[in-house]
From TrEMBL:
Organism: Boletus edulis BED1
Any Pfam family hit: PBP_like_2
Protein's UniProt name: PBP domain-containing protein
Superkingdom of the source species: Eukaryota
Domain PBP: start-end pairs: 30-265
Amino acid sequence: NSTIQPTAVYDGGLGGKDIRLRIGNGGAGQSGLIGAWANAFIQYCNKQSVEPFLVGWYLGDTTQSLSYLATGEIDVAVTYNEAAEMQACKTGSAVERVYGFRDHFWLVGPPSDPGKLNSAGGDVVAMFNQIVAQGNADVATPPTDRVPVRFLSRFDKSATNIKESLLFTQIGQVPWAYTYSTWYHQYPRFPLQALAAASALSEYTLTDKGTWLSSPEDVTSALSVFAQGGDINPNDPLLNPAHVILGAKADPANKEIWEKFIEWVKLPNGGQQVISDFKQPPGPSGVVLYSQAPN
């Protein structure tokens, strides 16, 4: 009963025929994590004598995924904005919310660092202040000996766009407001495409670890990382927690499946094991993209 089509469908190698679980997500779908979760979950269910089935991944940022959840287009959303998730629970469009994994925002930009972010002592709020100050200065007097400071925003209501907006408003800046700052580049695309554009155009941008490690070397080699979210401080402004949200309109015919999935995601030897094993590129030289949910 979905009017939207899945971006990818997974069968766990078991050749199921029907989609019995519909998951909405943006970046972790593009990195391959949703597929890894789907395949492992199908195999887990099969060991519990559940007939093979399919899992569909529906590409959408946090705002889109919660909207699909509210209309019953998907059963489960994997999203990255606590305020929006709590609102969905409050209004009744979501009925359960569990911690799925931790992703991490990264502030990246041209290695020449025209905004002198490296002098900010690792303080991400100070870095955003420098982007604004130098961006404005470069608009007033365009530099002739270096690239001007520009910031690429996904400008698409995604969790990344919301996070970057919070960091700008924290320093009292709204560069997207009329008349909007010309150094603020509005580029509404999904994560991989946005990072590639920032790389090609020598612009600063907010991305996430999963997107960075899933991007080709010709994209990342033209950028430097200036700040990274970590797992130590739960209030780290660049920590990007992902929650799995069950929709009130999840397909009742597949209740057995989505109930199992919400429980399996939390299991140390289930969904959490997949998180700690998931690397890009796959294999021994790969890097683990995400951190397990905190206990």
